[in-house]
């Protein structure tokens, strides 16, 4: 019988390959999996992705900006572009992908044919400024390439990227003079006075350089650039546009041109003239978080030559190589959804180091990398859950670089803290927990090496014992964060407890038994905010009493929970789901409460003042991270068929192959990484363990090409809408009766086969011995 199962799955794998060869043939014909990527997905609604050109984990994100509104209205334009807009104000070189907050939008460039206006103007009044109308029919969005026609100028703009360089090619109408405007004033999440200082200059060889310092999301951020053109300028003018501001005894001159060679101030622009052109104009731009000299060095080393098509081909090749980690067969829609998600998961963290190894740290000082590449753009609260575990599985070599970057940032931190939400090396202190510890522990437990593990553990302990952060002082003293001392205290207690468990796993693996004992004890602190009377997690006051009044439906900034309510956060005990099941009163009560959450009738208007709570299925909110593991919790209570049912609800309603196909912020790849794991059939509910909870697959076949040279194949027999449930599972031909996979089993290679059926299998994976490992013992 076991052998028969192996033959069926192996034969099925071949049949699926033949029946769905259109997917594989398409990839081969177009040069690889990058052809299936649609960068438009997430550019509408609240996905907050950008459609422009970048390479995997690259320093440059060269993309169109349709608006850079002031900070009060910036949420929908967190990536600079909204699909519903009809004008483009320029192309800038740095963007977050899918963030809930915003900044960046550095070095905004706009090609102009004819008369030049110095302000972007009103999008509703054509010709009122330098922005231009465009149509989506004239756009081309590909992995590593973007093109559009600026219809007000008749200019065809093409963009591509290499790790540190943005490459532009502009084709101007031959009968109008060509100009390139550089506006050094705006940025995403803009507000008056954001630019503290900036300078521009045109060097003797025609290279344009500059730096600016901003007081944005990360105060005091410095960004420098160097730009060259393929043809010499016929003239140029630099402007200082300040009006009414006085600094150092100097009053801003307003709209008057100041100099052709150099200018400094807080509102600078440059206009570079090229006359009538008979061939395309190319530009290449390097950036640096350190200095103009470093930006020039980046340009010299990484930006050689003027072959735009070769750079485009290199960007495509880089994406094909990255996306070849997984080969998926399926319908065109399945492949587009999968590879666009994998693409989004490989946009961050981003390289934040110059060719000479220099980078800027959280102390705002310049540091020298010693044998590693420094990466930043870390939204730890988001990406520890699935995005970074995905990199551990597919790219452990990069995980090593990422972890060395985290340790380097901790060493440079004035507070001895690992990054919380950092970009370009600087810290924003956004979100809660100290989830960098989970990223490090997850990688180490799963075999990633190449970093100093003892040093990493010291950095983890230093972070978890810094009393001034998020009221850790009271947490360490009381066993919980008191709500009268710290907002969001309920969820912070839960998150700290999970992070403490991750530290304990790292310490145990290193034989540091004293550290293990300390943090294993702290990992049980979730119990201190569990209220058995209401069956919800609740924040406590310093006197040990739960805060009243209590409404489990309430969610507001500054409440008991982080971007969630009690219905969403009361399931957050990933390290001890067995303990949580017991606290609810056993399997039946636990799954009953889960059903109650998913099946509730909820008016989305209840969350109208909390932007991030979106994608509702009952109280479940897939558009925000606290809900991401919840559907898998049925596995832990003897009802895996309900996990399968809920996953189909989520996949069908929360993802789409269209611009508004993401119901919430992609959050630096987390939303997309959830999709990748779920489509494959398993998910890392508890990073820092070596186990994945099994759900059900959503592609008929996938092959993971693992870094160790092995291949792990996943096949789904009878997978369609009429067969949503798992009937049986085999691993390498042998029945798999448990609802979890071990990391080592994947790395060993082989074949995981799901046989799907129309009705639930209520016997498979229900025993307590079949459930994923938990901190507490499973109750019989």
UniProtKB/TrEMBL annotation:
SUPFAM superfamilies linked: Six-hairpin glycosidases (SSF48208)
Enzyme nomenclature, EC number: 3.2.1.-
Residues annotated as signal peptide: 1-27
Keyword Hydrolase: yes
Top class in the EC scheme: hydrolase
Keywords from the UniProt entry: Glycosidase, Hydrolase, Signal
Residue ranges of every copy of the Glycosyl hydrolase family 92 N-terminal domain listed in the record: 37-288
Domain Glycosyl hydrolase family stretches: 294-757
A Gene Ontology molecular function term of the record: hydrolase activity, acting on glycosyl bonds
Keyword flag Zinc: no
InterPro entries: 6-hairpin_glycosidase_sf, GH-type_carb-bd, GH92_a_mannosidase_put, GH92_N, Glyco_hydro_92, PNGase
PANTHER family: PEPTIDE N-GLYCANASE PNGASE -RELATED, SECRETED PROTEIN
UniProt name for this protein: GH92 family glycosyl hydrolase
Organism expressing this protein natively: Rhodanobacter hydrolyticus
């Amino acid at each position: 019988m076991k052998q028969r199962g192996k033959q069926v799955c192996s034969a099925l794998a071949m049949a699926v390959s033949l029946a769905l060869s259109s997917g594989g043939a398409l990839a081969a014909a177009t040069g690889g999996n990058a052809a299936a990527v649609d960068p438009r997905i997430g550019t509408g609604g609240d996905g907050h992705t950008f459609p422009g050109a970048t390479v995997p984990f690259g320093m440059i994100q060269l993309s169109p900006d349709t608006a850079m509104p002031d900070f009060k209205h910036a949420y929908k334009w967190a990536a600079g572009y909204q699909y519903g807009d009809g004008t483009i104000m320029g192309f800038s070189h740095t963007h977050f992908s899918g963030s809930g907050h915003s900044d960046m939008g550095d070095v905004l460039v706009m090609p102009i044919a004819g008369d030049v206006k110095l302000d972007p103007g009103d999008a509703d009044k054509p010709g009122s400024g330098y922005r231009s109308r465009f149509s989506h029919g004239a756009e081309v969005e590909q992995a590593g390439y973007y093109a559009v026609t600026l219809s007000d100028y008749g200019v065809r703009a093409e963009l591509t990227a290499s790790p540190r360089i943005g490459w532009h090619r502009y084709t101007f109408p031959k009968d109008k003079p060509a100009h390139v405007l550089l506006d050094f004033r705006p940025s995403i999440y803009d507000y008056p006075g954001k630019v503290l200082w900036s300078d521009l200059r045109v060097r003797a060889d025609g290279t344009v350089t500059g730096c600016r310092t901003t007081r944005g999301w990360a105060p005091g951020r410095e960004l420098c650039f160097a730009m060259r053109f393929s043809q010499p300028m016929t003239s140029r003018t630099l402007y200082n546009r300040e009006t009414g501001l006085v600094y150092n005894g100097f009053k801003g001159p307003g709209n008057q041109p100041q100099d052709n060679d150099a200018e400094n101030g807080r509102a600078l622009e440059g206009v570079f003239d090229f006359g009538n052109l008979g061939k395309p104009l190319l530009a290449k731009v390097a950036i640096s978080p350190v200095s103009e000299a470093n930006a020039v060095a980046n340009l010299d080393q990484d930006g050689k030559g003027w072959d735009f098509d070769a750079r485009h081909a290199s960007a495509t090749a880089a994406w094909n190589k990255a996306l070849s980690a997984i080969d998926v067969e399926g319908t065109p829609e399945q492949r587009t959804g999968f590879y666009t998600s994998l693409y989004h998961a490989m946009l961050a963290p981003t390289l934040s180091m110059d060719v000479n190894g220099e980078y800027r740290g959280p102390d705002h000082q310049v540091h020298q990398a010693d044998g590693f590449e420094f990466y930043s753009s870390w939204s730890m609260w988001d990406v520890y859950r699935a995005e970074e575990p995905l990199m551990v599985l597919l790219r452990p070599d990069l995980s090593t670089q990422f972890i060395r970057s985290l340790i380097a940032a901790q060493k440079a931190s004035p507070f001895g803290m690992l990054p919380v939400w950092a970009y370009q090396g600087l810290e924003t202190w956004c979100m809660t927990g100290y989830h960098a510890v989970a990223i490090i522990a997850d990688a180490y437990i799963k075999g990633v090496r190449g970093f100093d593990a003892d040093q990493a553990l010291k950095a983890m302990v230093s972070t978890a014992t810094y009393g001034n952060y998020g009221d850790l002082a009271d947490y360490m003293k009381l066993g919980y964060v008191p709500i009268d001392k710290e907002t969001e205290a309920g969820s912070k207690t839960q998150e700290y407890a999970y992070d403490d468990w991750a530290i304990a796993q790292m310490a145990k693996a290193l034989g540091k038994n004293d550290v293990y004992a300390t943090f294993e004890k702290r990992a049980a602190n979730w119990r201190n905010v569990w209220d058995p009377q209401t069956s919800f997690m609740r924040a406590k006051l310093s006197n040990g009493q739960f805060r009243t009044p209590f409404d489990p439906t309430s969610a507001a900034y500054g409440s008991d929970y982080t971007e969630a309510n009690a219905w969403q956060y009361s399931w957050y005990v990933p390290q001890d789901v067995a303990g949580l099941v017991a606290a609810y009163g056993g399997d039946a009560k636990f799954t009953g409460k889960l059903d109650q959450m998913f099946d509730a009738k909820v008016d989305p208007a209840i969350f109208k003042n909390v932007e991030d709570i979106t994608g509702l299925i009952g109280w479940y909110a897939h558009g925000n991270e606290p809900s991401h593991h919840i559907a898998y919790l049925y596995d832990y209570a003897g009802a895996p068929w309900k996990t399968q049912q809920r996953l189909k609800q989520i996949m069908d309603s929360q993802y789409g192959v269209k611009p508004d196909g993401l119901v919430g912020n992609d959050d630096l790849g987390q939303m997309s990484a959830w999709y990748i794991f779920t489509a494959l059939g398993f998910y890392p509910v508890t990073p820092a363990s070596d186990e994945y909870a099994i759900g059900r697959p959503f592609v008929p076949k996938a092959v993971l090409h693992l870094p160790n040279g092995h291949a792990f194949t996943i096949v789904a027999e009878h997978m369609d809408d009429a067969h949503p449930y798992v009937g049986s599972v085999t691993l390498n031909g042998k029945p798999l009766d448990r609802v979890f996979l071990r990391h080592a089993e994947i790395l060993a290679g082989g074949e995981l086969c799901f046989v799907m059926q129309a009705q639930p299998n209520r016997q498979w994976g229900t025993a307590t011995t079949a459930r994923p490992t938990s901190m507490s013992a499973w109750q019989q």
